[in-house]
Write a structure and sequence with these properties.
By secondary structure, this protein is mainly α. It has a single domain (2-82), classed as ACP-like (Non-ribosomal Peptide Synthetase Peptidyl Carrier Protein, Chain A). It has four helices and no strands. The radius of gyration is 12 Å and the shape is globular.
Length: 91
């Protein structure tokens, strides 16, 4: 799952931090640190759907799922298992 974490990190860094990778730890809160706002969440959800084929339900749009790289990885792992996908290399 390190590959997923790196891919998520790359997306966040490129789309929200304008390449400033050194400032982001995997447990940094996107919301508390002003990295992602409500519009950014929509971009992130679109990326998860496009890249991993994951549909984020309205009730899943909570910080526990989407507020850091670590939380995103855990959320994606659970969703991919739920969808019967062993690998995130789909789509």
């Amino acid at each position: 799952m390190q590959a997923i974490a790196q891919e998520l990190r790359n997306f966040v860094v490129n789309n929200f931090l304008f390449g400033q990778n050194e400032k982001l730890r995997n447990d940094d809160s996107f919301f508390d640190n002003g990295i992602i706002d409500s519009t950014g969440i929509l971009e992130l959800v679109g990326f998860l759907h496009e890249r991993f084929g994951v549909h984020v339900e309205d009730q899943e749009l909570i910080p526990e799922n989407l507020d850091s790289i670590d939380r995103l990885v855990a959320y994606l792992q659970a969703k991919l298992r739920e969808n019967g996908q062993a690998s995130a290399s789909v789509h």
